[in-house]
Sequence to fold (157 residues):
Amino acid sequence: MRRARKVNGDRRRPSGRRFVYPAPTRSSRLLGRTAASLLLFVAVVATACAGGSGSPSPMPSPPGEPAAGPGMVEVAGFKFVPEALTVKAGTTVRYVNRDRAAHTVTHGRDGEPVPNAAFDLEQEKEATVEVDFATTGVFPVTCRFHPTMNQTVTVTP
Fold:
């Protein structure tokens, strides 16, 4: 039995006839590139959608640290949780950032501080800041970076 051998770039069958390979056409190359691009697009979209919402996922509570309690506010999912809080005068409220984005804890509403704001603290991602509420009253709280984040803290005697 004769083997196929290469002769000047040709491949020949044992019978001596040439193998005939159709040359790739422009449309077949374009189809291959389009299919590869479509596959890449689907993979990227599937990865992006796997997280659910378009906002970053909140971080879970670290072991040993309570998720929430009196004087504790979580900044999670681009929200203050709870959105309304009532505490006694002299309480220190701890704001725990569970997001993977920086926020502010600002005395104000809709991203704007009130004149003579009592507090305006920047909070790095996954960090904690504390605010002392010494006087009674109603204090609006907002994030300057994300104006839709709002909270109301009511301080009672």
Notes: Residues 35 and 78 are 38 Å apart (CA to CA). DSSP finds one helix and twelve strands in the chain. Residues 6-49 form one domain.
